[in-house]
Amino acid sequence: MRGVLSLCVLRVVADGPTYGYAIAARLAEAGLGPVKGGTLYPILARLETEGLVSSSWEAGDGGPGRKFFTLTDAGEQFLRERTELWHVFTERAAGLLAPLPAARSTP
Amino acid sequence: MKSTDQAWSDDLLLALRLREVPGTRIGEVLAEVQSHVAETGEDPRQAFGDPKQYADEVAEALGLQRGRGWRHLLSGLSWAHLVVTVVIGVASFLLADSLWGLGAGDDAAFGVPSGLMAAGAVVVLAGCAAWIAAATRREPDDTVRDPRTGEDMARLGRWQLAVLIGAPVLALTLMLLGGLLTR
Lengths: 107, 183
Known about the structure:
Chain A is α+β, with helices and mostly antiparallel strands. Chain A has helices at residues 2-14, 20-29, 37-49, 73-96, and strands spanning 18-19, 53-58, 66-71. A three-stranded antiparallel sheet of chain A has the order 1-3-2. Chain B is elongated, with a radius of gyration of 22 Å. In chain B, 25% of the residues are buried. Chain B: The chain crosses the membrane at residues 73-96, 116-135, 156-181. Chain B: Keywords: Membrane, Transmembrane, Transmembrane helix.
């Protein structure tokens, strides 16, 4: 599941430079449940280490600054490829996971 | 930041240091936590969990090893470190002993005049301090810097420095006074 979550994070960043808390809020809004900081930031760190996103600190209004993440060219290519793969996989899985026939009566 | 938040942050800093995460990266991680907590109003433990486990996850995300405990850290020590530690210990003891002797008007250990022993111990300790300072300077700069301000996030505070210098000076002064009281 972590791989999918990381793909979702990348997709949120693809909508334009954004920061940790806003990404978490966007994921929650999309129905992916609350994603804790302890899960989200290591994902972002990994994406940055792999060169899929870049980051820069921007001064916050009054509060501490925010770290903004931007999709890199490599990140965009990765996102396109993996999104394609994900759709192929979910379609196949959905085909296999057809609804069960009406409940069997237990002997 | 609340004091409990600061304590959590300090634990995380130490845990990341023990996992050999570069200082600039530690600064980023600490600033991320501060920024996130300020925005959500959460407690850092609630949002990020146990500092050691979080440090393990960060290390893995950066392609580094998870924490490997004290045994791994000790393997980074050389014989020179061990020898200097023993020399500092022995010299400190002899300095304390000779100060007591100076106060009491006695000779120091091994029948050496107290004044001579004290002077010798001070020279040896100064030599060790110089060796440590030189070794530290040879290490590449790995300061934990706040990415927002460029500030050193793990600076030795004024009172910490005062305790570090004050406690041994106080102990040695008490040795001298103790010796004087025996007269």
